[in-house]
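PROTEIN SPECIFICATION:
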Amino acid sequence: MRIPILMLCLLASSAMYADASTAYTLSGNSVYSVNLTNGSVSALTSIPGATILNGIALENNTTAYMVDFPSHNLYRVNLTNGASSIVANVAIATHLSGLALAGSSAYTGDFSSGNIYRINLMNGSFSTIANIPGGPNGIDLSLSLQTTPIFAYVATNGGGQIHHVNLTNDTSNLVASVGSFLRDIVLLNNETVFTVDNISNKVYEINLTNGNVSVAAAIPGAMSLNGIALASNTTAYVLDNVTHSTYLINLTNGSSSVVAVTPATVFRSIALVLQISTSGLNGNHLRFADYLNANAPQTTMPLLALQSDIPGSLEIAIPTRNAIFTFAAQTTQLAFGQQIYDHLAQKRNRKTWQSQPMQISQPMTAQAHLNRNRLFADASDSTNPSSENSPEPPPSEHTPESPSSENFPESLAPSACEGNVSEKIWMNEAYYSPWLGVFGEYTHERSQKQTPSFETGSGGFVLATDYHRDLHFAPLIGGGMAYAHTHVHEADSAGHANINQGALVLYGAWNEPEWYVNWALWGGYYHANNVRNVNLPGIPSGSAASSTHGWQLTPHFEIGYNYEDNWFCVEPFDMVDWVACWENGFEEHGAGMLDMGQKDRFCSLLRNELGVRFVETLVYDWGAIAFREKGSYVYQKAFQTGVITAFLVGSPGSFIVSTLTGAQNLGAVEFETLFTPSNKKYPYGTISYQGEFGSRYQSHQGMITIGMDF
């Protein structure tokens, strides 16, 4: 009796980089280990109760599953110590034929009826999910495991046919007729399968799109081919049931050679222990490959080990890109801060105008002079007790006398209650100053550290209010809240993320006549929805989706010096921000066998900016306009932001990948215009642009602020 076999193959392109050094084969109730490097063969174990083992599939490097032809049993075997146990008995089957694994399920066929069964590996339950019509007289099948299996390709022993089977709705259709007695089938990719003919001893290649059949190899000296397994897109291993030989086949030119001979009477089925070759790999790719070789299920390995471009495929599957949305949340927090720090600079500039002596030029009319007085009085951010208790400003030879009413028309002359400019300032104190700032930001980061380039777009607002105590010597203190939405787009459709984050802030400033300091403390929260596209060649696209959240704490400190000369001000400064993040771990879903998990982590982003601001002020009867320019050097460095401790969902162990590790040296420029009306009934406002530019990174931020003084 000819016994069919089943070999599991993933729907993926194979590669010359694949490294399969160990194979397992079956004979009677015995399991053999074959060293494909030196050809040595050793008996691993014999399974009690089994008679004719007829299908093997590896779960990982230490566990295999096997089916027994007459007893209908599915066995689990420990490849380390040879221990075995019965997982299920498919009582309704006539003779089990072959085996394939997918997650927590096993698939096997019925030699006589053509039924395909799904077996639950957790509890041993089973069900019939498909049937190959026409009494196939034995079947072998290979699952189309993209990231979750939904199809099988079945080779029938009798008639030599290839069938396509939908595992979800029990439908099948004939793809091609090949040879006379097919013994195994293995998928190379979406379009190609290989099978062996037991009579002609040929290896056939079948195009699944059009059904074309070609001979990949004819093996001289072979007598009864009985199984095939791919080691790469150019290499396969084939079994001979009579000579007990294992052949190495070059699928490019059809050449073959014997690599091992098994001392067994009947030689059935082959399963390779695939390993990703680490030759030529480095960095993240090497760490990822080492982790997969040690921990990944064998059902996952062909997705990567059989690719033609191993480094490129590893980069597609590796979760390094999951660090991008964390970095985006950190830079958005810096954008929040930019609103506050610009607002405090505006406060300093407006107080500078108030401190200037009021000179009356000849062309200025009386009404213009009064309006100018009102501008400085109404723009005041200071607070003080009422003017009744305010001391008279001391006379100074540098302070001009207020214009006498004798020099003005009666309607334009200042009244006694208006007093001089200093008195006007004290009489129009602003205790509170609520304000709203809205912003939009775009950033772009070039590809680096085996990570694709990406860009972010953010939009948000800061709503806050200030409390002012004095013109120069007493502190300003304020508080507020912020919100932003950020979208992250990775190059080449590698993935995207959406981040919603909010923050609360407490800030303050202390202004001396020439020196100033300000500070802020932010507490924030962000929630991210991330999609990592896993588009391996030859495999239907998969998207690994995840959701997580994190907390941020961001202190800020700035110190600077004001040099004022009438309408012009120069302000050198130095500021530091540190964005600390505590991010929750998560597990992805949607990419099947390539879903990754990530552990909880702490990371931070440091930003130091050293530069100078220039301010020019123009005063009119209706108000004032100030123009501000900034040039600065920015040092920005992420600490552990790009370092991820990850794992394959459902697998043991973990591995570390890193990106965004280099410091960024940036040049920054800012242009801002501030409008302040002379009438306090109307709001003041600003519009500004800031750009940061480096060799790998650039950002552009536009801001609009509006506020009132009360």
The first strand starts at residue 18 and ends at 27. The chain has six helices and 41 strands. Helices lie at 283-295, 301-305, 310-317, 324-355, 366-378, 421-427.
